[in-house]
Amino acid sequence: MDDVLWKDDVLWKAADKLRGSVDAAQYRDFVLGLVFLKYVSDSSGEGAFRVPDGARWADLSPAAGGIGERVDAAMGAVMRANPSLDGVLPQIFTRVDQRRLGGLVELIGQVRFGAEVGARPARDVLGEVYEYFLEKFARAEGRRGGEFYTPAGVVRLLVEVLEPFRGRVYDPCCGSGGMFVQAERFVLSHRGRPDDIAVYGQEANERTWRLARMNLAVHEIAGDVRRSDAFYEDAHPELAADHVLANPPFNMSDWYRDPGDPRWRYGLPPAGNANFAWIQHIVAKLGPQGRAGVVMANGSMSSRQSGEGEIRAALVEADLVSCVVALPDRLFRTTPIPACLWFFDRRKSVPGEVLFVDARDMGTMVDRTERILTADDVARIAGAYRAWRDRGHSDVPGFSHAAGLDEIRSHDHVLTPGRYVGAAEADRGDEPAADRVERLAKELLTHLEESARLDQVVRDELGRFSG
Question: Span 388-410, mean pLDDT?
Fold first, then answer.
């Protein structure tokens, strides 16, 4: 029962009973804190954490009464015994319904995190439990869940393209730390060692920052992750990152903006939208051979408002943009805003060229509202990038196209992949009606985007004459 308990949603359903007596903003802290305490209690002596006498799970019998006070005391004792956990574990268990808390403690007590669970290390099983809960919390919290969770397929795609085999990995808005976990997993899957990469990050939200610290502890990843706002205070001012992975908040309007900030090398970002502030911060953190992958709202590829078009053009002309990927819709349950991926490279293997990938038709619907990128999807997109990087790429109509700077200039530095990849070459004679409608709708949207762009060009020219 131990290894499949959480997979069958038993833990989730039990934890969900706390909802009525817990502030929604603290709900995940309660559950993840308890799971982590059970893990360190089971694995102390073999694991990376010390658990003092009196703080073990066996000391938390609900029948003894005062369960909330004893859980809080155990959390404090574990933090004092392990400096890396200082300020990370929640001490808020007296605020919840004690009867329901006792029931959850009894249920979690049935899960065993010994040195190994079955044939796998306990750390790996705990990591899966933790990631499972993070995904469930993100779905349950809707749009707020986007503050700390990036869909697993998107994270895997970023990592597979960047290939962070070694070096300094940075995330300026690290959420719950999923980018770091996937980067380490990539290293280990290629027979590397955990210390082949060094992790640096920052997160403005205190509760989310604690989630990240706990997530790193769960996966036994040593990292320097600080709580700070990247625009107000660069937590790692001297860092020259080898790899940056980030999913910044889309279209953030409330952000600290210093017009004299030296990071705005390619243009002053508008006060009402931080998209190009995030991009320029990330570019500024790259070392001489650094590369970055960033999730962005689709508007970043084409917007010309408030100087954003000029910033985008400057980034392209500086030959920093290596690839742009248009993602399918409904990947992000937490936001309806369509998304894309930008990749940057300080030392491009193919100078003067950008790879465009249109992946809008990819992915698999897992229910009526959510799509995922499968392993095959990730492999196809990452494979196209690697082929281009290694100078072995051939354009695939409707999917990928490598464009030179002159071609991009002819599109006024708009980077929407649909403009460059063209239409797919396929026999549509037996195409299902639903697929045909979806394809034609996407083609219509592409034409409407082009029409809107040309309309703006005409208006700009008329404005010059009338002025």
Answer: 97
